[in-house]
Amino acid sequence: MQAGNSKVNLLGLDRQALEAFFSRLGEKPFRARQLMQWIYHRGVTGFENMTDLGKGLRLKLSEYAEIRLPEVADEQFSADGTRKWLLRVDAGNSIETVFIPEPDRGTLCISSQVGCAMACTFCATGKQGFNRNLSTAEIIAQVWLANQRLGAVPGVQRAITNIVFMGMGEPLANYKHVLPALRILLDDFGYGLSKRRVTVSTSGLVPNLNKLAGECDVALAVSLHAPNDALRNVLVPINRIHPIAELMAACRNYVRDQDRSHAHITFEYVMLEDVNDSLDHARQLVELVRDIACKVNLIPFNPFPGAVYQRSPPETIERFGEYLWNRGIVTITRRTRGDDIDAACGQLAGRVQDRIRRARRAPERLEVPV
Ligand code: SAH
Ligand code: SF4
Q: How far is the CA of 69 from the centre of ligand 1 (A)?
């Protein structure tokens, strides 16, 4: 094992990988559990403070390993309580992480890539293009930092109860790094979240969706947005490679697989005025999803500079939702949160100018850089 520049960032290792790491150091595997408890339960990242590890091991750890977090470049507060962090992951790349508090839960929306290659035509991240995949450590660091910023205290119920991969990027296009991150989120020695409280949202990368079905049990949201191939080819271009019939087959397989007898899929459907919001579209949608255990989430389109679409009027969204309800499909209209700080769905682009567009300044004590 090499020291120096090749230090391993331990935030990127799930329990199995961490056990292998300790074996290579000549240590017992249970050290992995101890270390994870320090990092994820107590929020401690300095090896010198991990008092049950023994001095020799702590020295070895600081020689071969590190716990490296991205820099918090900015923090914004929405009038509705939503918080958004701009994290600099390297000199040229930033990502965004959003916390959405609700009365009965706190949802952290995390990014999986810098930008996105899927090029959905209604999405600010898609417009920005693709820069690179995030590492597992960069994905998990978003949760660690948000917990710290939200004042998590060991042993006390955390503000973050749910995690959704609905920030920047297509999580299944970064499968290799997202899978270990999911394992850390679900692991009792990691964040210990229940599988229903961790949601992967995908635009429909079918091969990796099928892989996920066999490898990890988490909630699934599918960005459908159109009920026929002709329209979906335009809105969600990955549809040209994996058309709706293929995607629906993967969805059926996902709910059938593993221990998913109570599982359902959430279909996301962005409401674009005069594009996908007619009752005929609703009729086609019912036909598509009626035999799948699912609910439909209608998302009012969130505008961004240069967008070519308009948000459907509230009465159109209501009429569309009612049509689905009346045909037995549980349909929820997502409330737009954090749009005053460009933190709503599809508005994330890791833009530098965000730093000068602050809706409300953070109180002084929260300005301390990590
Ligand atoms: N890439 C993944 C997850 C990130 S996007 C996916 O596409 O599922 C999270 C959700 O926001 C997706 O359903 C996406 O389609 C939706 N979205 C993107 N741009 C939007 C916009 N401008 N307004 C409303 N929702 C949008
Ligand atoms: Fe990528 Fe999702 Fe945006 Fe499509 S909607 S461009 S998949 S982030």
A: 26
**The pLDDT value given to residue 37:** 97
**From the alpha carbon of 346, which atom of ligand 2 is closest?**
3
pLDDT tens per residue, range 241-283: 999 999 999 999 999 865 555 679 999 999 999 999 999 999 9
The angle subtended at Cα 110 by Cα 108 and Cα 115, nearest 5°, is 150
96 assigned to active site: yes
pTM above threshold 0.85 = yes
The segment(s) of the chain belonging to CATH 3.20.20.70 are 71-359
CA distance 278 to 301: 15
Of the CA atoms within 13 Å of residue 217, those in its CB half-sphere come to 15
The amino acid present at 255, given as its one-letter code, is: V
Rounded-to-integer distance, Cα 32 and Cα 58, Å: 13
Give the ligand with the smallest distance to the CA of 199. Answer: 1
Q: Does domain 71-359 have CATH number 3.20.20.140?
A: no
Nearest CA to ligand 2 atom 6: 126
Q: How far is the CA of 168 from the centre of ligand 2 (A)?
A: 7
For residue 224, which ligand has an atom nearest its CA?
Answer: 1
205 lines ligand 2 (CB under 6 A): no
Q: Is the CB of 301 under 6 A from ligand 1?
A: yes
- Rounded CA-CA distance 257/274 in Å is 37
Catalytic residue among 27, 96, 170, 268: 96
Contact of 205 with 243, CB cutoff 8 Å: no
Using a 6 Å cutoff on CB, does residue 269 contact ligand 1? no
Q: How far is the CA of 345 from the centre of ligand 2 (A)?
A: 10
Domain(s) of CATH 1.10.150.530: residues in the chain? 4-66
9-52: pLDDT as tens digits: 999 999 999 999 999 999 999 999 999 999 999 999 999 999 99
Q: What is the pLDDT of residue 364?
A: 26
CATH fit for domain 4-66, picks 3.20.20.70, 3.40.640.10, 1.10.150.530, 1.10.10.60 = 1.10.150.530
